[in-house]
Amino acid sequence: MEEKEVDIKENYIYQLDDKLLEILLKDRSSNKNIIWATDNYQTRGSGYYPFDNITIKSITGRNGLVIKPRVEKSKREQNIRVKEKAEVFTPSWVCNAQNNLIDNAWFCKENVFNIEKDKTWQVINDKILFPEGKTWQDYVLENRLEISCGEAPYLVSRYDTVTGKWLEINERIGLLDRKLRIVNENTEHEQEWYEWAVKAFKSIYGFEWQGDSLLIARENLLFTFIDYYVERFGVFPIKEYLEEISKIISWNIFQMDGLKFVIPDSCKPVPKMQISLFDDETQTEECPGCLKNNPNKHTGIYSKVMNWETNRSIKFINLLNRRN
Questions:
Q1: Position 170 in a domain
Q2: Mean pLDDT of the 242-254 span
Q3: Is the terminal CB of the chain with fewer CB neighbours within 10 Å at N or C?
């Protein structure tokens, strides 16, 4: 793999460590693998239908080029995804502008990380200063969530989503990129850097419907860690680091129907109350959550995330219920 290649090849990940793809494909809610949840690949046959789990075999070896980032898909493929799945394409400069709004509010001032230009930005290279009453540790620990994250352009920005151009580390504008910049500026030793990088990854969340985009998002986060580590220390991170970061990513970047809070298309019909004593056939009716648009009554598999403070998983919907 080229050092600055946008498309992260699954064969390359598998060669790095055969456990990495296994972890990145894990669905923590079902304890199986994430599913394709798209019909874009079903012409390839068994193993590629929307309800099929994505396996290592289906995306490596001869199948190593099956999954590609959006910038490398054909215009036809891109248009189909927009039309059939309402896949939203967000230019990197828009991601930057919206991420800046978050930081403007947090820092109580503008132009903290960069200055917005016409569909681009100018990096501010001075060390970030923090307002009174807030520390760099507070910033790193602040939880952030990207909804319907696709390839996670709001979280990490290894490449420009419009042109596919590789972005150097000091040019990046993702929410996690900003946290890792802060970690870089405020830690001295490798162990301290790694400790806070882990905390940064634990603070970043995102969910996505389509399995291929979800896997790309997870890969983008993992390789963002690699990029920053190599840039800072001049060597490749050890296998144990990669596996720990991958585990965090597999929990925090998860597959979910954002309206139902369950794994996509996992709702099942339920037995219907028998009306006739002489009717031997089992009758079913639609999932009550789907039928009544009640997010708490779905029969599907509710998506889970990890509470890293308690090291216990929790249904994502329960986090929303707590706020109500």
A1: yes
A2: 98
A3: C
65 and 124 belong to one structural domain: no
For the question of whether the overall pTM of this predicted structure is more than 0.85, the answer is yes
Question: Of 232, 197, 240, 213, which Cα lies nearest the Cα of 85?
Answer: 213
145 exposed, middle or buried (CB, 10 Å; 0-12, 13-18, 19+)? middle
Range in 38-42, 314-318, 319-323 the model is least confident about = 319-323
In-domain check, residue 80:
no
Domain count, the chain: 3
Q: Which domain holds residue 225?
A: 92-255
Q: Are residues 25 and 161 in the same domain?
A: no
Phi/psi of residue 199, nearest 5 degrees? -65, -35
Per-residue burial over 298-321, b = 16 or more CB atoms within 10 Å of its CB, e = otherwise: bbbbbbbbbebeeeeeebbbeeee
3-class secondary structure per residue, 80-147: HHHHHHCCCCCCHHHHHHHHHHHHHHHHCCCCCCEEEECCEEEECCCCCCCCCCCCHHHHHHCCEEEC
Q: Please check whether residue 82 lies inside any domain of the structure.
A: no
Cα 277 versus chain centre, distance: 51
pLDDT at residue 2, as a whole number = 43
pLDDT surpasses 70 at 170: yes
Confidence at residue 3, expressed as pLDDT on a 0 to 100 scale = 47
* Structure confidence by residue, pLDDT tens digits, 48-91: 999 999 999 999 999 998 998 877 655 555 555 555 555 567 89
Domain match, 98 and 196 both: yes
